[in-house]
Fold this protein.
Amino acid sequence: MFNRGGIVNIRHVGHHAIDSVLRLGYATRFIALTLLHSGTSFRRPRLIVRELYFSGVLSLIIILVSGLFVGMVLGFQGFHTLQTYGSESALGVLVALSLVRELGPVVAALLFASRAGSAMTAEIGLMKATEQLSAMEMMAVDPIARVVAPRFWAGVISMPLLAALFSAMGVFGGYLVGVVLIGVDEGSFWSQMQNAVDFREDILNGVIKSCVFGVAITWIALFEGYDAPPTAEGVSGATTRTVVTSSLVILGLDFILTSFMFRGV
Amino acid sequence: MATENLVEISGVSYAYGKGRPVLTDINMTIPRGKVVAIMGISGSGKTTLLRLIGGVLKPTHGQVKVDGQLTNELDSEGLYRLRRRMGLLFQFGALFTDLSIFDNVAFQMREHTNLPESMIRDLVMMKLQAVGLRGAHQLTPSELSGGMARRAALARAIALDPTLIMYDEPFTGLDPISLGVIANLVRRLNDALDTTSIVVTHDVQEALDIVDYVYYLSEGVMVAHGTPDEIRAARDPRVHQFVWGEMDGPVAFRYPSRDFRAEVGLV
């Protein structure tokens, strides 16, 4: 038999489970409404372009610098390991495949969630807390169409582009360390990379991954902001949840997508 | 055909979820062209009443009729059409912080009309001139004082020449000069634009000086209504305490507690 404390604990677990399912339902309804009200964004592309600047262009610095350093570290680590087997010439392949298949989409998505996702949540949460969204609704303008949808599409468009730039900078970083600093043969570095990297298997799959991450991050970030309690604690809690949830979802989705994409390789 | 009363509220009750009713059996009419105040202490249900008129909330019982249309029978498209004829001034302005003052006022014109940009510019300047902020059109909301932000929000609320302007606590947190300016603007704009205004407030003296009629709410119930003079002379102890700012009365000064002498150990 359960004692009273046990029953209370079970009740808490039950409440928590019901709340989670409810929130998932609200989030699904939210994304459905966002897609349904995306017409305005496409009729007025300037709305998306403006948000592309905030979520994409302003994330460039962190993405490019991180890409460069990740590539340089890969260059060092890869060279160190490959040297043991006398295959330093395969350094280009190692750097490129690591970046294009995994590190590019995943690390760029983690950085995007921290930089742009958190900013989206905080902005929409504060707009709600200061009644700007209610004001918009009272002016007969749907906030989902005017505020949420342009940000959603801007996030979805900018994520694969940022991931591609991250990978490109990473390859350049690997080149700097491997070829310029350590002295690996430049010809074999590039030619082996060209031979080994397949457009459909590697690049296209990486792009698909970053598109999926883009949808997941912006969905989470926008929903958390829109659903945030209209207080300082509410907005700060929502911002933290965006970063934590997005990061976990990115890693989980990456595992699932990778297991489907590369199972036959 | 236009009805004599712009807003008619009959037998309206409202409760959030399954909770305690916030409003109970409210009846009121707002005639066209008048400035009407809805007064009461904090938590008396004033803002909820405003949200019911704006169609943001639907009454649990009764009906709200605005410009001849029952708000609870309108779908979201119908509600949006109705709201295009309404202007609402939020308590702290609720200006869009990422837009300039000019763009804030131009917002509705750009969203709901196909006017050329040159005409929008002229209209925005006219609205800003009316609230004395034409010179501040390029500033952002964060660069304005509280009173100026409220005036900018007022210019935005009248952008499309609404039939009904609603003010949610327009005087809260303002210095005496800004407060006088806003009070004056509420009256002058109503008369100049030939519109109807509803002012939800607990700032008694400022409101009584500018309005035509007052409805007084206490704990969600309409306890008195009349002209400002009738409200000043009201005998109902709840209204009397509110109008004259008395320390004790139906709204008690002391939080409920046990006997003071017992508290300090005298008995």
Notes: Chain A has ten helices and no strands. The mean pLDDT of chain A is 93. Residues 69 and 168 of chain A are 12 Å apart (CA to CA). The longest helix of chain A spans residues 143-182.
